Amino acid sequence: MLRLYHFLLCPFSRQVRIVLKEKAIPFELAVENYWERRPEFASLNPAMEVPVLVGDSLVLADTTAILEYLEETSDNNMFLPSSPLERAEIRRLVGWFNNKFYQEVTRYILAERVIRYFTRIGEPNSDSIRAAKANIYYHLDYIAFLTRQRKWLAGEQLSLADIAAASQLSVLDYLGDVPWEYNPAVKEWYALIKSRPSFRPLLSDRISGFVPSQHYTDLDF
Questions:
Q1: Which of 13, 59, 81, 99 could be bridged to 86 by S-S, CB 3.0 to 4.6 A?
Q2: Looking at domain 84-203, which CATH architecture does it have?
Q3: pLDDT at residue 76 tops 90
Q4: Phi, psi of 171 (to 5 degrees)
């Protein structure tokens, strides 16, 4: 059976978990506190980052590499269509959420609120948290813009773009840092993904020291 090394509030790990569930691929989870830099984990991924997917003669690191591998080796629920143009748009949006959104919003919240808590290295930087909370608004505007043009973020079908965006938001939602009332269209789009069976295991995640927001598990908010 495949084993996924992950961290509960890692948005990239969550993407892989969702896709594995959508494709009905059996796997088990292994929580990895990557900041501890275990030598055994370093042998799997010298970058010391999660997720890492391990199986018989298989060690895959990097979210994009893992997701592309799953797309190419499974016929269930394809999230990259056959059209090169559609695939390019999906990859563009995955890059937006896994790079731009993460760097401008999720990374700051995780680093200052969560990782500092576990590493006990100083107090949270309030300026960084404030910047992240300000940055999220134009990302929500962009998601709303996309949903006005299309059924899903990249087109008429659920894709890796939706999974990437929802995974980032799910981490922030756990911590109560998504202003859902700011944009009802984004809230409606997220609710569709949140209600999928593949997403529900994420809603049962609990991390020591952090209580999820009141609406985190509410499929109707």
A1: 81
A2: Up-down Bundle (1.20)
A3: no
A4: -65, -45
Q: What are the domain boundaries of the chain?
A: 2-73, 84-203
Residue 77 confidence class, pLDDT cut points 50, 70, 90: confident
Instruction: Give the separation between CA 176 and CA 154, rounded to whole angstroms.
Output: 27
Dihedral of CA 165/171/173/179: which sign? Answer: negative
CATH of 2-73, picked from 3.40.1000.20, 2.40.50.140, 3.40.30.10, 3.30.1330.120, is 3.40.30.10
- Give Cβ neighbours of residue 218 (< 8 Å, ≥ 6 apart): none
Q: Which two tokens stand for residue 198?
A: 């593949």
Q: What pLDDT sits at residue 220? A: 81
Q: Are strands 58-61 and 52-55 parallel, antiparallel or unpaired?
A: antiparallel
pTM: 0.97
Whether 215 shows a pLDDT value over 90: the answer reads: yes
Contacts of 92 by beta carbon, 8 Å cutoff, 6+ apart = none
Q: How confident is the model at residue 221 (pLDDT cuts 50, 70, 90)?
A: confident
- The pLDDT value recorded for residue 149 is 92
- Rg (the chain; Cα; Å): 17
Q: Report the distance separating Cα 108 and Cα 61, nearest Å.
A: 23
